[in-house]
Each structure stands twice: as C-alpha cells, then as structure tokens.
C-alpha cells in the first residue's frame, strides 16, 4: 500500500505545497518567504525557502538562478548547523549538475548529500541522494552498477508506502529494461508506475510514466496512434505544472515516434522544437539527443551522407564530453541505420550544431 505523493523538498513554512503545485507559484511563494526569512535572520527557514527557489528555478530551466539558490541554501543550512538541510541543498546542486551535463560534479554533490542525510538521520534526504546517484549512473549507461541500487530503493519505498519514490524507481528500472530490449517487463513497470502515480496524485511521475509507455508501444508494437495519444496526455500534465524539462523530453519522444513511423518531415520539426527547448533550458544531454534525432531525420530526407557523417562525428564527441558511456554505441547504431561511413578525419563541420 502507499499514500498520497508528497514533496519533501518543500520544507518549513512551504511544507503545505503539493508535488503538483505550479512551479511558477512555488517560485513566487518561496521567493517571498525567503526574503522575509533573511530579513528576520531566520537562517534555517532561509535554507528551506532557498531550496524551494533552487528546485523551482531548476525545473523551469533558470539554471543560473538555481545555482545561486542552492549554494545560498547550503550556506544558510551550514550556518544553522543543520546537516539535513545541508543534505537537501547538496541534493539540489547535484541534480542541477546532472541536468547541466556535469556528471562528475553531480556524483560528488549527491554523495555528499547522502552522507549529510545519514548524519542528520533523514531517511528522505538520504534516499533522494542515493536515487540521484542511481539516476546519474543510469543516464551514463552504467546499468550493471546501478540496477541493484534502483531495486534496493524500490524495496525501501514500497516498505514505507512512499508512492513518489516507488514511481521513480519503477520508471528507472523500466528504462533500463527498455534500453536492453526487455520490452515486456519495461512496459509492465511503466504501467505500474502510471497506476501508482495516478492513485497517489503524482502528476509529474504520471507524465514520465506515460512517456515511457509511449516509447515502448512505439518501438515494440509500432502503435504510433496510441503512442502519440499517451504523449499528448503527458504533455498536458507537463504544461499545467510548468515542467519545461519534462515537456522538452516529451517533444523529443514525440519526434522519436514520428521518426519510427517514417514521418520524417514531422519528426524533423519536432526535433527542431525540442532542440530549441533544451538549449533554452541549458540541458546538454537533451540537446545532444535531439540533435541526433534531427541528423537522422535530415538523412532520411536526402541529406548528403558526408555531412551526415560529419554531424555524427561531432555528436559522438558531444555525448562523450557529457559522460554518456554508451555514446559510441548510439552513434554506431545511427551509422548502421543510415548506411553512412565514419568521416576520414572526424573533424569536419557540424552543420546541425548551429
């Protein structure tokens, strides 16, 4: 069994905010209360409000504001001698670092967060930090190292009835299964995550679960209509909550579905839209993946294979720079699908980057 989803990152006087609260509203309330706490010299409350400012800013794509806010929250928490608040600030900083493609920094901050959470006796802070480490490893393609940690965190979440973490863990495991060709189990886990998220009123988790379901029914079943319908439902949830990053990934998945269906002109437009959104958000991983889809779409529409090969060379470098260990496999798969050879020097102009 499990209860309603809650948002432990909203603390202090903001603890009544919901996991489904509009991020614009969160940012406005947290900013107002942060200024009041700073005027009153209430450093612990300033740390709590600063964390909410950091998370709302990060999810809205205001990465510079998020960077300043989590650091200020950490300083305030340290001044208050509150290791749990320090843990949450470091978790926010590590999550932001991953979003910006700084994987090594993300690991350091999330490891610090886990240590501080344990020191402060906070099950939730420690759990979120470990989840962040697991997600970082999963994104980098290091499945062997983190699949067991995902399973451990899922078991812990089930034992506590913590719906939001159950949904996160199920989606992470499902994504690894999908990426290794275990489509049946992946779809079952995405569907379970969607059911839990819906009953627990976790709309963010539901949006990601619907996206995962759309991916599997597209790649496994070729059911383009159902996949696009699931993505439309998920996009509405993202828009209602101002989830800019989730919406950009939704648009990239829509482009993937269209590409698989041979609707390359439509796919090209969607990849271009997602690419612009990721650039606005300052999210290099999403940007690189959207660029990869765009290169493939342009190739299907008749682009010169030499230019396509040059773009794939540049994308390989970009993906490796982010720390995605399966970058070579992704690019090699694209080459095989498109029938293009490696560029002789690997250093030709990247025409899709501009």
Automatic annotation (TrEMBL):
Superkingdom as given in the UniProt entry: Bacteria
- InterPro entries of this UniProt entry? TPR-like_helical_dom_sf (IPR011990), TPR_rpt (IPR019734)
Give me the segments passing through the membrane: none
Instruction: Report any Pfam family annotated for this entry.
Output: TPR_12
Name of the protein in question:
Tetratricopeptide repeat protein
Cited SMART domains:
TPR
């Amino acid at each position: 069994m499990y209860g309603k989803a809650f948002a432990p990152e909203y603390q202090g006087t903001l603890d009544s905010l919901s996991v489904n609260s509009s991020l614009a509203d969160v940012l406005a309330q947290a900013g107002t209360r942060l200024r009041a706490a700073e005027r009153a010299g209430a450093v612990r409350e300033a740390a709590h409000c600063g964390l909410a400012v950091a998370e709302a800013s990060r999810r809205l794509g205001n990465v510079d504001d998020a960077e300043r806010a989590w650091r200020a929250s950490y300083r305030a928490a340290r001044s208050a001698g509150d290791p749990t608040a320090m843990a949450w600030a470091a978790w926010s900083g590590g999550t932001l670092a991953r979003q910006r493609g700084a994987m090594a920094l993300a690991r350091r901050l999330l490891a610090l967060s886990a240590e501080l959470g344990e020191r402060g006796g906070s099950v939730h802070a420690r759990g979120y930090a470990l989840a962040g480490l697991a997600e970082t490893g999963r994104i980098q393609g290091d499945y062997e190292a983190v699949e067991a940690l995902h399973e451990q965190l899922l078991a812990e979440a089930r034992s506590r009835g913590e719906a939001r973490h159950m949904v996160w863990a199920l989606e992470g495991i499902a994504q690894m299964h999908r990426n290794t060709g275990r489509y049946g189990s992946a779809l079952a886990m995405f569907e379970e995550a969607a059911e839990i998220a819906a009953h627990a009123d976790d709309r963010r988790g539901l949006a990601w679960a619907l996206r995962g379901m759309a991916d599997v029914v597209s790649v496994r079943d070729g059911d383009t209509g159902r996949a696009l319908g699931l993505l439309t439902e998920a996009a509405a949830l993202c828009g209602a909550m101002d989830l800019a990053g989730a919406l950009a990934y939704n648009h990239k998945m829509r482009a993937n579905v269209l590409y698989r269906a041979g609707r390359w002109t439509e796919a090209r437009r969607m990849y271009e839209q997602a690419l612009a959104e990721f650039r606005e958000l300052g999210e290099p991983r999403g940007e690189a993946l959207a660029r990869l889809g765009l290169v493939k779409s342009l190739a299907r529409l008749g682009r010169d294979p030499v230019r396509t090969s040059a773009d794939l060379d540049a994308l390989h470098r970009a993906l490796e720079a982010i720390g995605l260990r399966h970058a070579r496999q992704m690019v090699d798969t694209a080459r095989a699908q498109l029938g293009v050879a490696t560029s002789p020097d690997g250093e030709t102009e990247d025409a899709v980057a501009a």
